[in-house]
Amino acid sequence: MFVFADRNSIDTVFRNLISNAIKFTNPGGTVKIKSSPNNKMVKVFVQDNGVGIPKENLSKIFKIEEKISTKGTNDENGTGLGLALCKEFIELNGGKIYVENNTTIGTVFTVELPNVG
């Protein structure tokens, strides 16, 4: 499976998504990365069973002007810019990013990128 994308920007996206999944998952929790290709797009899922995203923040997390920053499970700080930059990088590469969230069972970020193989 191959995608058409700028390697550096996609590396940054997945580093941020995986880092966030770890940051917001309690010790002993799980982070899963899965992929699912079809004819036109490759979907990559970053899933955790962490604390989830508060409902009031869901509509803001991809907006750079909002700067939503939440401390991690070990009190780690963030800038609040990471997910907005992820969205920008994914869209510049012809893709989409979206989130499914449940504050009791965790979060799944889905990235879709053009399939070339």
From TrEMBL:
<keyword id="KW-0597">Phosphoprotein</keyword>
<feature type="domain" description="Histidine kinase">
    <location>
        <begin position="1"/>
        <end position="117"/>
    </location>
</feature>
<dbReference type="InterPro" id="IPR036890">
    <property type="entry name" value="HATPase_C_sf"/>
</dbReference>
<dbReference type="GO" id="GO:0000155">
    <property type="term" value="F:phosphorelay sensor kinase activity"/>
</dbReference>
<dbReference type="InterPro" id="IPR004358">
    <property type="entry name" value="Sig_transdc_His_kin-like_C"/>
</dbReference>
<dbReference type="InterPro" id="IPR003594">
    <property type="entry name" value="HATPase_dom"/>
</dbReference>
<dbReference type="InterPro" id="IPR005467">
    <property type="entry name" value="His_kinase_dom"/>
</dbReference>
<dbReference type="Pfam" id="PF02518">
    <property type="entry name" value="HATPase_c"/>
</dbReference>
<protein>
    <recommendedName>
        <fullName>histidine kinase</fullName>
        <ecNumber>2.7.13.3</ecNumber>
    </recommendedName>
</protein>
